[in-house]
Amino acid sequence: MVDPLLVELSRLQFALTALYHFLFVPLTLGLSILVAMMETVYVMTRRKIWRDMTKFWGLLFGINFALGVATGLTMEFQFGMNWAFYSHYVGDIFGAPLAIEGLMAFFLEATLVGLFFFGWNKLKPVTHMMVAWFMALGTNLSALWILIANGWMQNPVGASFNPDTMRMEVTDFTAVLLNPVAQAKFVHTVAAGYTMGAVFVLAISGWYILKNRHLELAKRSFAIASAFGLAASLSVVVLGDESGYALTEHQKMKLAAIEAMWETQDAPASFTLFGVPNMDTHTTQHAIHIPWVMGLIGTRSIDTKMPGIVDLVDHAKTRIRNGLVAYNALEAIKKDRGDQAARATFAKTQGDLGYALLLKRYVDDPNTATDAQIDQAAWSTVPSVLPLFASFRIMVIVGFALIVLFGTALFYTMREARAPRWLFRLALFALPLPWIGVELGWFVAEFGRQPWIIEGVLPTFLATSELGVPDLLITIAGFTALYGALAVVEVMLMVRAVKKGPDQVIDDPSVLLPGTGTNVEGYRPFAVPAE
Fold first, then answer.
1. Distance CA 67, CA 247 (A)
2. pLDDT tens digit string along 19-53?
3. Nearest-CA neighbor of 275 among 254, 264, 289?
4. Cβ count within 10 A of residue 89
5. Residue 285 contacts by C-beta under 8 Å, 6 or more apart in sequence?
6. What residue segments make up the domains of the chain, in order of their start?
7. How many other C-beta atoms lie within 10 A of the C-beta of residue 351?
């Protein structure tokens, strides 16, 4: 049996590195689009202020992009280091989109980022604008491939287990690419990234306006962030609804846990606005329900029931017992590769093999499991309800708060009226909100599919490498120290750039480094070309 501490430390390390990496990715997505939009206006109008905006926000994008790439490297290697059995078991499927993403991130994106920063004096304005848009496209395509890989973990389509190689293998790569869960996650994630980029620009522009600095740049940036942010934040809600519908089809237990829906509800199901879920009593105390809402979101109908946790656990028991048939057929194939009867049995039942593997958490041989252990394994398919329930609702509150913020900002912008100072303060104080929202969204998506590392196929506790607990403790401490230092560097460079202001950092980014104020002799990468 697997050491539970080893599994939990492996999960903790991956969660820490993933959550840290995800601090940078959404901002990169959002700023890349905003920067391309600003440069497009510059090319259309040839007004210097829009070029200055492109360069200033582009510089902040570059700082964030560098940290995103650096932290992303860890994620790539961690699958082989800490999750060796997972990599062996599904490497044929998971490795392909991950490899393509590596090409996108570390070749296409890096090349385009280099052209963007160093091509101002070498490329024509229209050509440089195209570089900006291709850079934004490359950034989004990089996210697409990552989410295709992640979406397959949530909904493993286009693949099957090969009893001869003892691995999952691709049967339909098109199905992997067009996985509905992956597509829903992609559009929802990039919309959240666009929202984050807009809040970032809105907050810093608001600070400049409060300080009465760089007003021409700040007012225009505030206006474009207001419009773009409102569209993006509304998209997050609409596309989040699509993600919820995908859960109804493919991850019923996750959705039931998010809603603390213990019993199957009559159609149309209500939405629990507030409550305190209790895993021991299987009840939600102090619950406040909104009729019909969950049924409409989850099923797009008024006559379809939504299964509750208790019924889904009963269904899991059935799948565990059916999975034992697949497990025994697979053991027979191992002993006799030519056993056609066993192969036929396995072909019929292999979809439930993963459920039988859940028993290995309690017994070495699943065939020796008692009814009580089968019940225990079935209830292990329920993720911890309270954290999911609370995280989802905080995420939703953040999303609607940002819609109100962007709507108010756009209202004053379109009226061309003097906006009240509280609006700019509100924009500044709202700066942490998108990070809270996206981190909670990641938590809901990943924690919500436990105990599976691949939904219904491979339990998380079977996927780890054969590492020692001291190894994991050392690497967790090392990553924490390194990432803490990188966070300090990121914040220092961002804050210094904002405080220095566009007038100084556009032409001389070396002022961001301590003890410097001028460029290295003969080196002016961001020099403004003559009008």
1. 32
2. 888 889 899 999 999 999 999 999 999 999 999 99
3. 289
4. 21
5. 275, 276, 277, 278
6. 4-251+384-447+449-512, 309-379
7. 16
